[in-house]
Amino acid sequence: MRPKFKSRICTNESETRVLPSVWLSGRGEEFLGPNVSIGERAVIRGGVRLRDCIVLRDAEIRAHACCLNAVIGWNTIIGEWARVEGTPNDPNPNKPFTKLDVLPVFNAKGQLNPSITVIGSNVEVPPEVIVLNCIVLPHKELSHSSKNQIIL
């Protein structure tokens, strides 16, 4: 049974805004931001850490999960104490004429280059699993930790 949804004010260092139709159930224990976008009817449980990520409609992030540099698909469940993390590809702010380096998806050995993690729709990430720099296609149930993979 899913909880009733409500709006809640989310305070970030630079701005405050209302999260419409999002359920934050952790009595203020969630740590959201910076750069977080949450879709309608998403459920964020207590102790969750979200940074530089997008959580799409009807996703559920369970207690104490951590999502960094990731896109979480529709109707996806991230289990308790799971970690979904990608590698940021930010330009170097210390260089005067910096630009964003565009890396190919695969390196010379055919391995996936580190990038953000993308979890497709209707995916279930079990508790205490780490998903690092992966692309997970829709309708998958992961059973173990994964690193630098495309999960078909």
TrEMBL record:
Coiled coil: none annotated. It holds the Pfam family GMPPB_C. It comes from the Eukaryota. InterPro entries: GMPPB_C, Mannose-1P_guanyltransferase, Trimer_LpxA-like_sf. Gene3D superfamilies: Hexapeptide repeat proteins. Residues 31-151 form the Mannose-1-phosphate guanyltransferase C-terminal domain. This is Mannose-1-phosphate guanylyltransferase. It comes from Echinostoma caproni. The lineage of its organism: Eukaryota, Metazoa, Spiralia, Lophotrochozoa, Platyhelminthes.
